[in-house]
Design brief:
277 residues, mainly alpha, 10 helices
Length: 277
């Protein structure tokens, strides 16, 4: 399992980091180094959380386990070495959850900042502002849940006796994170939706908008599948694949609009096919 995860995750991350680098280059080329805007700097911070997520999940996949006890297991009979190894795995789990939460919300912030520049109509601009507040409240709610649902805090990596289920599998956090994550993503899709449906341009020029919209739907789908796999069986570790896919495609969606001009210039035929899009 862990070798397949390692191959897929680092491949997806390499593409994501390359897109962030291309985005930064494209923005500097367009605006100059001193002209970079808030979302450009926020995107650079996403690198830290993105790498933390991928490295953390790979470390978890290769660990000896976490605080989650196997049914029927006598945790008091575990050797000191096994206890320490599983405590390490439990700490990596917390790190990976922090990384995932922050990379997703950092990317949301980037998109909202970009939307705030592009929505000139008063109604749309107000919607983006309200959505920004809602998204910020969601991040705070997730962080409070993550730090308060398991008390005392070090019970997150307590092995014997087994701690409360919230400490072992983050039940409450998963519900709060899922609610705010999916609802804010759905709301964010409503911002460019009128452009996809109503803009009066040839279909070829609409295709890039359709691709972005479809990728946004995939991010939501990945978030749903992650939680479905998790709630169906807390011992099923395949949710890690969907965590990484969700984070990676979110990185792609957030950066593609900024690197699209570079693609049109660099790839023969793209400019003529899509026209001035």
């Amino acid at each position: 399992f862990w070798r397949n995860l390692e191959t897929e995750s680092y491949t997806l991350m390499s593409v994501g980091l390359a897109m962030i680098a291309l985005r930064t280059y494209a923005r500097i080329k367009k605006l100059g180094l001193n002209g970079l805007q808030a979302d450009d700097y926020v995107m650079l911070t996403a690198i830290v959380w993105y790498v933390m997520t991928v490295v953390g999940l790979n470390g978890l996949a290769q660990s000896a386990g976490t605080a989650l006890a196997v049914p029927g297991e006598d945790v008091f009979a575990l050797s000191e070495e096994v206890v320490e190894a599983r405590q390490y795995g439990a700490k990596i789990t917390f790190m990976a959850e922090q990384g995932m939460l922050n990379v997703i919300w950092t990317l949301k912030a980037c998109m909202l900042i970009m939307y705030s520049r592009l929505t000139f109509a008063a109604t749309n601009h107000l919607f983006v502002r309200i959505l920004s507040i809602y998204t910020a409240v969601g991040w705070v709610a997730c962080q409070l849940t993550l730090f308060l649902e398991c008390r005392p805090f070090n019970s997150y990596w307590q092995i014997a006796p087994s701690p409360d289920m919230n400490c072992m599998v983050y039940w409450t956090f998963a519900a709060v994170q899922c609610t705010f994550n999916i609802s804010s993503d759905l709301a964010m899709l409503c911002v460019p939706l009128p452009m996809v449906i109503g803009v009066k341009v040839p279909l070829r020029q609409k295709m890039i908008l359709i691709v972005l919209f479809s990728m946004g739907i995939f991010v939501i789908g990945a978030a749903i599948l992650t939680k479905v796999a998790f709630w169906k069986d807390v011992y099923d570790i395949n949710f890690m694949y969907w965590y990484i896919r969700e984070a990676s495609v979110a990185v792609y969606v957030s950066n593609l609009p900024c690197i699209w001009p570079l693609i049109r210039e660099a790839v023969p035929g793209v400019r003529s096919f899509f026209g001035g899009s």
